[in-house]
Amino acid sequence: MKHYLALPVIAIFTSLATLGSSALASSDGVNYPEKPIRLIVPFAPGGPNDTVARLMTPKLSEELGQPVVVENRGGAGGVIGTDAVAKAEADGYVIGISSAGALAISKSVQDQMPYDTLTDLAPITLIATVPELLVTSPDVEAQTLPELIQWAKDNPGYLNYASSGPGGMQHLAGEMLNYEAGIDTVHIPYRGAAPAVLDVVGGQVDMMFADLPILLSQVKEGALRPIAVGSKTRSSALPDIPTTAEMGLANVVAENWYGIVAPQGTPEAILETLHTAFYATLTDPDVVAALELQGLEIIASSPEAFSDYIAQETQRWADVVEATGAILQ
Amino acid sequence: MLDNVLLGLQTAFTLENIMYCFGGVFLGTFIGVLPGIGSLAAVSMLLPLSFYLDPTTALVMLAGVYYGAEYGGSTASILLNLPGTPSSAVTCLDGYPMAMAGRAGVALFITTIASFVGGSIGIVMLMLFAPLLASFALSFGPSEYFALMTLGLIAAAGVVQGSPLKGLAMVLLGLLLGAVGADVNTGETRLTFGLLGLYDGISLVALAMGLFGVAEIISSINTHKSASKDMSVRLSSMMPSAEERRKIGLPMLRGAGIGSFFGALPGAGQSIAAFIGYAVEKRVSKDPSRFGKGAPEGIASPEAANNAAVQAAFIPTLTLGIPGSATMALMLGALLIHGITPGPGLIAERPDIFWGLTMSFWIGNIILLILNIPLIGIWVSLLKIRYNYLYPTILCLICIGVYTLNYSLFEVGLVLVFGALGYFMRLFGFEPAPVLIGFVLGPMLEENLRRAMLLARGDFMLLLERPITAVLLAISAILLIRIAVRIVGNARRSSVSG
Fold this sequence. Notes:
The complex is a heterodimer. By secondary structure, chain A is of the alpha/beta class. The N and C termini of chain A lie far apart (56 Å). In chain A, 56% of the residues are buried. Chain A has 12 helices and 10 strands. Mean pLDDT of chain A is 89; it is low at 1-11 and 13-27. In chain A, helix 2 crosses helix 10 (268-282), helix 4 packs parallel to helix 12 and helix 7 packs across helix 12. Chain B is mainly alpha-helical. Chain B has one domain (2-221, 237-497). In chain B, strand 1 (181-182) and strand 2 form a beta hairpin. Chain B is globular. The interface between A and B is large, with 68 and 67 residues. Chain B: Residues 18-436 form the DUF112 domain. Chain B: This is DUF112 domain-containing protein. Chain B: It comes from Halomonas campaniensis.
């Protein structure tokens, strides 16, 4: 019996101990890593970033020869946790798994950004992208995107769309659809994606854009109707669902992504070690299979390509915010 | 049904699952007893373990921690006036006076029984009505939630004990504290003073631990003694009297019913269930003045309610595949890690998981019952520890617990600020419970009203066309009128007599 209880107790103590130990070890990068590495997830446990992190850490720990410990620091749509990475000591022992919101979108929609992604963080790799999927409640009659748009035009100001909150990708994707298709659907914000999805399933709200993985089982069970994916190519998880571009809205592009960042100033050699370990993890067949099951399209890019991608996305979302007028401050 | 139950029993009754169930509920009880460390932190620390376990076993263990914590949560409320979990804050109101009167053993015994009854009824609901309750929950849109929260806020007025005016002031303070953070409609920040740590609002745990826990510790600084030196802990001294046994029967059932209802609604939660359970008992009681002075109903009902609510919380999560709370999201995460995407088809596709888990709830609740009765003696003897050893330890535990939620020192600071606030509130006779009610219900009420108004394009009358909303608002109006009539009546009587 003791054995079973010992595990959780050890888990608690080791996670507390790793918090304190970061100040002690040396960090010249020669023997890196010589102590556990903290992987900050800037969201509460159980969310997509968290799942991706936890699916990678066993293989990653093996590659690095040191345990990689997931640390959840949620708040402010990922900004607080990402800021913790930006402000951490640049010794390679604190890295973060952040995503489009905190790395590229927040800059355009939040006024108190405590960091600048491109100058305060060192990108390591773009792990994967995941399309935003437009779904409707089964009560909505339209079966395709053109039908939906036509219906919205015939009944202006009637349809509602839900989102995980103002200024998030789901909100901006909805506004982008309004703008590009010339329709007028009303934004109904929620606190997080789960309650929003629940109300679309329940028919309280007509439709929403959300990360494909969180909708997948509802779509497969027929509780939600998939209309189109916001990625440039079709998703391997739902190959029958057309992209928004195929349906004539080439400018409605919305895909979330997850990437690994370190504090700016982390020694080049350490970044190299980390990138190699992440690359090995993201090409491991078991990890790949597990991540693809979550609906992710794995990229495993180079640091330079990730950096360019962040710059590109930051500019694109800034343009969307400006064009649609979905500005907060 | 019988086949499913058998399949569930087969799954739950493997040695491995029973062991992990025991481990989960045992750890959960401790997590619940320790103020500040909640089931969310415990489940997230255990989540990595689920990699190495069968998905059902992982869920059995994590769920055990979750509902086990609800059993333990009331222990510190009763003994020390420090709620172990926010949902057991209301248990302080009558549990602590009972302990002060030397009846801590009885109070703990009642909570254990009430927790078991509440939990059991919650499981029965889960077994019999999961799909039905889930589709009912889906019919609750923003306007229904708004009406429900309105009703809750008015009903919870019963929790106020002393001066109604002071109580009202504290509810308003709670509403104000609840308004802190980014506005959910516009993203505009309110009352954050430029602090990023307040962007998502004040954490419920920080507020509850500060107002109740730290405030209690500060006010006891001058007390060097221990609470009680000669508390007997024999089984006979823990047994409620015949009169008490009679008194808690119906409140437990009512509490369990209320808890099952609120638990099945993904947008409500255990804290509300406990508050409403308490308020209802006070309202139906022939002698409401006993409440707050150690009325056994005042602990039986909320404890049955919060335990029924944790079990019923699995209904929306497992039948719809959409988590109702952060802890539930974690549990679904344990399935996702194994490549099982929980959705509306989970019960049909993986009956072993659903029914195995449900049957493990029975095992867990029975273990908790057996585990908790002997533990009562140990908990009560904790009171023999001198305060100058006990309280610094508890203060450390609160700080560690709050810190582990988000690894945020800011929130530890918040706890201390609210501790100081709670201490001054005590000095001037303001109660902390109404603050918590305003804080929990206010944001939900506001958010849902604004969402409902957006959906109705600003036409409030459209809300009243929805039957559930209309009924709930009508009950709220009747309650409000009755309270007003009583207050006016009391005022007249006192002016006549004075």
